[in-house]
Sequence to fold (281 residues):
Amino acid sequence: MPLPALLFEVFTLLPEVFEPYLQSSILQRAHQRGLVEINLYNIRDWTSDRHHITDDEPYGGGGGMVMKSEPIFAAVEGVLGWPPACPVILLTPQGRTFTQSVARELAFGEDTSVPDQTRRLALLCGRYEGVDERVRQHLVSDQISIGDYVLTGGELAALVVIDATARWIPGVLGDPDGVLDDSHASGLLEYPHYTRPAEFRGWSVPEILLSGDHGRIARWRREQSLLRTWQRRPDLLETAPLSKLDRKFLDHLKTSFISSEAEVSSEATGSDEPAQPPGTS
Ligand code: ADE
Fold:
């Protein structure tokens, strides 16, 4: 078996929550193909006391329990050595926000080249109120949050990171270009998809998709991406790479909206969806 392209070392108090998802998704196929490997380690196995305690009350008082530093350091050092042989990422609501480009960075390193050897990443899942600050200061090299909300632990966040990162590895998805078309990969939301039948309950697939004209279809999809992004996530337009034609289309959307201050007909945008100003849909 060749070396996997991506190897995750996951440190958690709940290894059992990972198994069902990892065994029933595209990730299982990726694992069977030898592309992605995930090792699960129960931090509790590195406790040295009789009761296998992994948490304790916070110094200074206050509610909740704090994950102790000793078993976490022992687990990570036991597996990765000292200093750790790979980046150690703490899943925490205090981390940098996880995005599609962070997923790509994790898959390939900071340059976005295709990996030619195994990329090894350790994920550390916090529980309780948090982890002892010394873990953050002296063990962890990166901190990631999957969004501005608080989960009961880092396990779901770790699964999100594993899933979104693995999708970048060539061969993990059936369609090698799939990841490039995804929402967010181009900095925009993805265009709408349709499959058979061409008419369902009286709702038709847009004519253009049945035309066989690949040039027009590509342009229509691009415009749909721009329209959706303008309607739903206008913030993304500030950083998305846009061509001259894209900007012209967006200007057209904006002027149509300003001049009518009402719905732009689907004809004007080539869309089935009425154009709406940002923030209204
Ligand atoms: N642990 C608890 N909440 C989290 C979040 N939003 N992201 C990552 N890890 C977490």
About this structure: Residues 91-93, 126, 145-147, 149-151, 154, 157 surround adenine (CB under 6 Å). Residues 173 and 281 are 31 Å apart (CA to CA). Confidence is low (pLDDT under 50) at residues 263-268.
